[in-house]
Amino acid sequence: MSKQNSASFFVILSVIFIAVFAPIVYSGYTDFRSAQDAAARFSFSGAAQKYESAARKLFWRNDLWEQAGLSAYRAQSMREAIRLLEIARRKKSLSANGWYALGLAYWTNGDHKAALSVWQSGIQVNPIYAPLYDRLASAYHEQGNYISEQDALTKRLALADDASARYRLGLLLTLSDPNQSIKELLAASSLDPQFDPAVQTLRAALSIAALDSIPSSRLITIGRGLGLVEEWALASKAFESAVSADGKNAEAWAWLGEARQQTGQEGSEELNKALSLDPRDSVVRGLRGLYWKRQGNYAEALNEYLYAAQIEPANPAWQVSIGEAYTQNGDLVLALAAYQKATELAPSDAAYWRLLAMFSADNGVQIIELGLPAAKKAVALAPKDPLMLDALGWSYLNAGYLYNAEQTLLKAVQTAPDSALIHIHLAETYLRKGDNTSAFKELNLARQLDENGPVGKLASRILKQYFP
Fold it and tell me: What is the pLDDT of residues 98-120, one digit of tens each?
């Protein structure tokens, strides 16, 4: 072929290439811009489709597969996210965030084994990306694999300090190294004050446990501390260890039953075992009462609390439990007597006066004669406590003193602006006064502050009733 013919041939090939592929490339960039626009409008499902289309046309842009997968993930389409992100993975174009999202997609889709494998692989490729360690540790925690969780948290903290990671590591160490646990917990608290209440609770439990020479008792104390900060899965481990240390420790069995209930299990077998070991243990009786209360069997709950009060007649807490059980059984006369007995046993404790006042106001029992004076006594004993102020305001309201109720509850709100219960009581006051605008505002605040809790649900019901 002559040089002239050769040149002509390449010109023809170039023309054909441009004619065939230029529209595809142009279309690819059009899809890319459309994907960006869709993502900007939070239309992530459409963005995923356009990114995928662009990736197929702009075949050298492997990064677009990840963008497609991330968009599918944001659209909550986990199967599509997995498919697209796996393509990006095969093309070796996953960023650290892509590895993170792919694991989450598998986890959300129920394939926990694949999720763990993805995060482990992601860490090998991105060894300094802390969020991967955080998510891996969280996954291990959910599975109860505390050894692997501790390892992941240790490696994560080697990268950078973090309050949440310190706190979680401190929780794990309560069972194996209490002294180091306190150090980690205090570090978490110093980094973020929101952890301080839980840290102080755990620190107190660990300090008390350190003074106990009996292994099973020491583990029970640690487990109870973990339960107080709502770490019931770890608490269950502590109580299991307590039972292993002393299989005849009735309280260890009873607390194990409580922990198992808190983690969605039945727990009655452990409670029955505790009763067989020591029917004269007040803690065993009290935890059995709590079990029956959860079952809705208030008659059995009352029997257990009465047994506990016989064993510990000077303990006002049992009288409160008895009062609650009598209330649930419809016997308000005996319930009132139990609440009054609690205040007699602990006359300088504001909490028991508050409980008497709340019982009176909630049930319309001698509010002016007994409830309101009890609430005033509670405030006199603890004048700055928002719960005591709330009880006084609630008592004023139910006694018909609307102005006093409003002023007292406003003071309570100023002291504890994040208390959903106080906002509910203030809303009820405004409804009684006919101030629907203020009531609507307070009810919405209560719902937001306790969105998934009982007070938030009550706020939603009242909103639906008065503001349909």
Answer: 999 999 999 999 999 999 999 99
